[in-house]
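[step 3/7] fold_predict: job queued, chain A
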Amino acid sequence: MLLTTTIYVFLGVAALPFIYYLLVLYSSWRFFRRSSIEAATKSDFTPPASILKPVRGLDPEAYENFASFCNQDYPEYEVVFCLGDTDDPSLAVIEQLQRDFPGCAIRVLFRSGRSASNDKVAKLDQLVNEAHYEYLVINDSDVRVAPDYMRTVIAPLVRPAVGAVTCLYVSAEDKSVVDGIQTIGMISDLYAGILVARELDGVKFALGETIVTTRTRLAQFGGYRTLENRPADDLLVGRMIAEQGYEVELLPYAVMTVPDYSSMRDLFLKRLRWMVVMRYMRPWGHLGLIFTLGLPWSIAAIAVHPSVTVALSYLGTYFVLRIAMAWAIGIWGLKHSSLWKIMPLLPVWDAVAFAIWVASFLHNSIRWRGEYYYIRNGKLVLASGG
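[step 4/7] structure written:
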């Protein structure tokens, strides 16, 4: 009798991810339905703005990425890059941009000699200090945008209650199976968690692919200099602006990114880095991710109570809800119509995601841009000796 009770309790626990999946569907419906109505309203709010881009090394298709910011349908803006030094290979690309887009204000800064664990954030601190305009559009070097990008992401700041704007992103093109696994994982997993977090607790984060704010809002929490030795600076910028009482607006608009990995191992290590950082920043939330992983729980339920009924119930519910989640976010919400082609990769991603989650508990350091770091008291510490 005790054994039977234990089995049924386990089966109940194994069904918890399905409740989470239903919450994802509800949160997605609320977000995209509301946002699509709001986004339909055009705005004439176009203050002069500075696009800030910290750069280190040469990303794939860097020229095309950078050039997309020089073709904006926006009245007055500048594009400011910050490099480590003059031997950075991206400098030649930026100089070509200056020749190809003489009508666009493009500037290049070189990082000061100040030491900081997070080189990207040190560059951002310098970019903010030397930007010509109050309104700032900050994004990573692998981002590519459409001509309406500036008008779209700056428009919400017309409301004084909004302190920052951020948005989602999709792959510019899935050229391989690994790219497809990354895309289906971002849409059905990462964005699912983001939309649930927004529904339950509001947006208290930002994504590095787009952070739009003002110099004043950054200065109110001390600016990037206060973050230059901390990981996940994009998340922290959103959190600190929200803590000042401002709204962080998450748009249904998506920019594009160009994959910077060439193998499954590269993708695994990149996502593992994110997960290790999250384990340190949100330990209980990271631990709770186990109850969002439907595939391992479904397999465990079948192992504990091997029967046709359990197999059909758990695996059937898992597949139906996971496909519904990917459709709601990727196809209905983000208009990623080609997502159907990579839907079969959903269980592959879920297996990889579970492996990454387990591995995140086995690592105490992260590798970023060729260097190894420990996270100590919320700060990045360079690992001596690699």
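[step 5/7] annotate
The mean pLDDT is 89.
Residues 32-263 form a domain with the Spore Coat Polysaccharide Biosynthesis Protein SpsA; Chain A fold (CATH 3.90.550.10).
exit 0
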